[in-house]
Amino acid sequence: MLSVMSGQTTSAEAAGKYGVPEEEVDTWKRQFLDGDWFAWFMQGGEGGFPFCP
To answer: Which of 18, 33, 36, 47 has an alpha carbon 20 to 30 Å from 5's alpha carbon atom?
Structure first.
């Protein structure tokens, strides 16, 4: 997320790397900016962010 926020990576590049829709990356970015980091880890009882098992 930090590479997307800093402009080093586009949302499309990050989406391709993690195999998720670009809209999902945009959602992560919005959640990050809103300070809703907990949402990354708990989506339907499973990790939502790509690094969460």
So the answer is: 47
Return d(Cα 7, Cα 48) in angstroms, integer. Answer: 22
User: What's the whole-model pTM score?
Assistant: 0.66
Three-state secondary structure call for residue 35: coil
Rounded Cα distance, 39 and 35, in Å: 9
Q: Read off φ and ψ for residue 30, nearest 5 degrees.
A: -65, -45
* DSSP annotation of 39: H
- Structure-token match 């990356």, residue found: 25
Strand intervals (E) in the chain: none
Q: Please give the single-letter amino acid code of residue 24.
A: E
